[in-house]
Known about the structure:
- The chain has 246 residues and is an alpha/beta fold.
- Helices cover 39% and strands 18% of the residues.
Amino acid sequence: xxxxxxxxxxxHCIVFTGAGxxxxxxxxxxxxxxxxxxxxRPEELATPEAFARDPELxxxxxxxxxxxxxxxxxxxGHRAIAELEAIGVVKAVITQNVDGLHQRxxxxxxxxxxxxxxxxxxxxxxxxxxxxxxxxxxxxxxxxCGGLLRPDVVWFGEPLPRDAWERAVELASRSDVVLVVGxxxxxxxxxYIPRIAKDHGAVLVEVNVEESxxxxxxxxxxxxxxxxxxxxLVEEVKRSLGTRxx
Length: 246
């Protein structure tokens, strides 16, 4: 069987994505900031301590990131994953990305391990608010209690959201095929997800421009940009499904 046959025959195929897929939309990787933000390291901005020290600075950085994503859009890789879900092949997407591009592409069942740029959480009362566009006020305030809102993302030194992590582990444990797309496989604990799936017998299909920490355990390695590899895979999966149903 080739890759498309494995994917088409899967009973519980999931997708695990990292920064590489969004980089193809023009979204810089976490350490790829330029211009105004070059003199800041992410570790100096994406921490609870940085927010406590200067919430306005932190929010200005996140507003810059929101504006980049807002202007960008899902690429053919995102749309291919959404199509695999639409035809019933992919059951869920687990992503390390915070940009919301999977949802904009049409994916409906998305687990965001590291949170989302498009949510804000009150540090006082815990209320969570969805954001439809980049924040205008920096820092924004909670409409309910007046407390400071923070980006609803996972910062350095913080644990992953329990609900998201438990859901991801459940999905990985049940999966029989995992498409691992655009991730280095070195950011933990998120990087455990493909390994959990593998330990439960899943076939790992890696899509990446270069080898990663996942590659030694992958059953298939498809070298290339996800925006080129995944649309081709979708067409091959459709053909395989058509053959099976005819």
